[in-house]
């Protein structure tokens, strides 16, 4: 089991889902990934924390007014959320949710980067972030679909200190990874020519599964939709799906002992 106890500054440390139908979303994801759900008290607005084999994986909350409903949100680790908020807006981001304390768990802010992609900032206290990675039922990759590729890469490099590595720089495939070159935590894809006109830049999450075809079949059985059936690439085997509420995510085949 691959367990993470610390995260690198400026890189993804948490994801959560803003649902218009919280019970339905909870049932779908627990059934698909074998997660257990733990609801927080009233002070946390009923926020649900998902675990796999006791390890933190992701969160779930009701979609709030002004938030992007039925979508996954990626949070980047910061030392100081207010400082991150100021640095982000100074670099061209739009502030969507000013820094707020989440009990004794930490502090968060939410911004839209200069290309319009919504991303969270997380300053941890008791809540240190997801713990299970590159395993079935855990997070396996984080990706930014960028419409303003160069501007957005510059933003994250400047504000969050990303170390990047170019994997492709052609009109057909412009992509880089960020993080330790030997162990990157995510990538940025120039998606301007691929996304429909009404779809803005956005972050997407990948979850690990043992068998992509079986997982896609299970998604459909649970009321979700297969957007793209499993395909093979030099980077692995993937599938693209949505949950019953329309929330988009990817599946990635990963090795692991978890069924």
TrEMBL record:
Alphabetized SUPFAM superfamilies for the sequence: Glyoxalase/Bleomycin resistance protein/Dihydroxybiphenyl dioxygenase
PROSITE patterns associated with the record: VOC
Domain of life (superkingdom): Bacteria
Stored Pfam families: Glyoxalase
Ranges of residues in domain VOC: 11-124, 138-254
This protein's name: VOC domain-containing protein
Organism of origin: Leifsonia shinshuensis
